[in-house]
Amino acid sequence: MRGIIGYLPDLPLLYENLTVLDTLKIFARAWSLKFDQTKAFEILDGYGLRVFGHHRIKTLSRVQQQRLSLLCALLHNPRVLLLDEPFTGLDVEARDFLREKIAALEEAGKTMVITSHDLRDVEKLCDTVAIIVEGKIVSQRKLSTANEASPLTRREIEILKLLAISKSNPEIAEELRISEETVKSHIKRIFRKLGFKSRTEAGTYFWQRD
Questions:
Q1: Pairing relationship of beta strands 111-115 and 136-142 according to DSSP bridges
Q2: 3-state secondary structure of 133
Q3: How does the average pLDDT of the chain come out, rounded?
Q4: According to DSSP H, which parts of 117-179 are helical?
Q5: For range 70-86, the mean pLDDT
Q6: Whose C-alpha in 10, 23, 106, 172 is 20 to 30 A from the C-alpha of 97?
């Protein structure tokens, strides 16, 4: 069971005196995965952590530690992900980043269980919401259109703007300082949310919105 489950605690549980790369090495070893430093830097790039590879954990911000914790939870490609109060203490940009990652995981077929005291967080991401009191479910309801109706994040709007001026994926990646793979993932979600079939449609929508 442990092999198919990933866990993101409410507070990062990382070894403060280790570097980011050493942390990935430990988690890779724990899951009997082969560690490749070049591949590790590519993965870190998708979490905005590439430049911090040789930095010690204690020098990272709360947001950066949260991103690394999520990466460690996903390193062994689990089928089920448990997220405990994942939005606590995060700023707007960090919350958007986490929502985007969760949406991408949902698209990849992962099952996620999110605990939160703020229903606004889970209603935007989950298809079922349950209220638990003293360990018992006292209310439960399905949100069949939760994901489809979710608004564009700030990052998705930035990408939509660049699509509207005919920027290529490499150009978008360079301008926003993210990987091309991340750009492709964002574009896929934008198309799914708004029903686009082409980049031309996305550009037309941007210039006609509002």
A1: unpaired
A2: strand
A3: 86
A4: 119-123, 154-164, 169-176
A5: 93
A6: 23
Quick one: what percent of the chain has pLDDT higher than 70? 94
Token pair of 48 as six digits: 């905005």
Q: Give all strands (DSSP E) within the chain, no chain letters.
A: 5-8, 80-84, 111-115, 128-133, 136-142
pTM over 0.70: no
* Residues 125 and 147 sit within 8 Å (Cβ to Cβ): yes
Q: Decide if pLDDT at 113 tops 70.
A: yes
DSSP H helices, 124-209, are 154-164, 169-176, 180-194, 199-208
Amino acid at 168: S
CA gap 153, 128 in Å, rounded:
21
How far is C-alpha 170 from the geometric centre of its chain's CA atoms? 21
**What are the backbone dihedrals phi and psi of residue 53, each rounded to the nearest 5 degrees, phi first?**
-50, -40
* pLDDT tens digits, one per residue of 12-65: 889 999 999 999 999 999 999 999 999 999 999 989 999 999 999 999 998 899
Cα 65 versus chain centre, distance: 14
pLDDT score of 206 more than 50: yes
Q: Nearest-CA neighbor of 68 among 29, 19, 115?
A: 19
